Amino acid sequence: MCRLLGLNAGREPVSASFWLVDAPDSLEVQSHRNVDGSGIGFFDASGAPVLDKQPEPAFADEEFLREAKRARSVTFVAHVRYATAGSRTLANTHPFTMDGRIMAHNGGFGDLGTLERQLGRYRDLVRGDTDSERYFALMTQQIDAHDGDVAAGITAAARWIAARLPVSSLNTIVATAGELWALRYPGQHALHIIERPAGASSRAEAGLHARSTTSSVHAPGLHVLPSVLVASEELDGEDGWRMLASGELVHVRPDLTVESAMVLPEPPARLVPLPASNPNIDT
């Protein structure tokens, strides 16, 4: 089950550490079925995107289990990959970057040939084999078509796929320096949001220090700063999580105000339902 995490601290850079396969259960067992790579995306002092990612599964690399990925930024996107399309390579490992933005995706869809024909010259932005990177290229195409409006571009891309291709999930996080967008669609994978005032943690002196079943994050500076998090799992130690509705797109601005819109109220034309035993089903 791919896992998403987005963190926006607004206008003030913070230092954060991410342990992306820090599960309390058997990591080795879990990694054999769940981890095909992990990574974080963030922004340097000039606002340029930076990616730190690796395709190795946890069971093949002991350091993968223990080493944190660390960065200083105003916005972060983290991802743990379970491959549904594309081999285990660096090019196929999330997050991805295009036109100064960072993106990660949880889910899948089919008929990539039809999508590639729609992409036209934007196909040249794709470096790997995944449906996710092609989804990002379609977003980039549509953002350009909507005069740089990121929310409109994400919406148009998701609507195009939902109307034409078989879809299990288009859950995504897209970020720029100081801004973050998150879409949950349809309702088969979870995506949660929490707005944290300064000192919101149950241990305020520690800042943000929370974990889920697959990952954890520590940002000491957030004991004095507000922040907004989006995650596919609720992180322990933080109260006030809200599940996004199916079809809901949220935009977290640099002042950390959160705007929400229902942009895909209808189900996909060709929904690929997940069986009850599928570990990707989230509640």
Question: Which terms summarize this structure?
Answer:
5 helices, globular, alpha+beta, 18% helix, 34% strand, 283 residues, 7-stranded antiparallel beta sheet
Care to describe what's here?
By secondary structure, the chain is of the alpha+beta class. It contains five helices and 18 strands. It has helices spanning 27-34, 62-66, 112-119, 131-145, 150-164; strands at 3-8, 14-19, 38-43, 49-54, 69-73, 75-80, 96-98, 101-109, 166-176, 179-184, 192-196, 208-211, 216-219, 227-231, 242-243, 248-252, 258-262, 270-271. A seven-stranded antiparallel sheet has the order 4-3-6-1-14-11-15, with no helix packed on it. Strands 7, 8, 9, 10, 16, 17 and 18 form a seven-stranded mixed sheet that branches. It has a four-stranded antiparallel sheet with strand order 5-2-13-12, with no helix packed on it. The longest helix is centred in the middle third of the chain and has 15 residues, at 131-145. The two termini are 13 Å apart. The model is unreliable at 23-33 (pLDDT under 50).
Biggest sheet, in brief? 7 strands, antiparallel
Overall pLDDT, averaged?
85
Percentage of β-strand residues? 25-35%
The total of beta strands comes to: 18
Low-confidence stretches: 23-33
Q: Strand order, biggest sheet?
A: 4-3-6-1-14-11-15
Structural class: alpha+beta
How many helices does DSSP assign?
Answer: 5
The rough form would be described as: globular
Radius of gyration: 17 Å
The amount of helix comes to: 10-25%
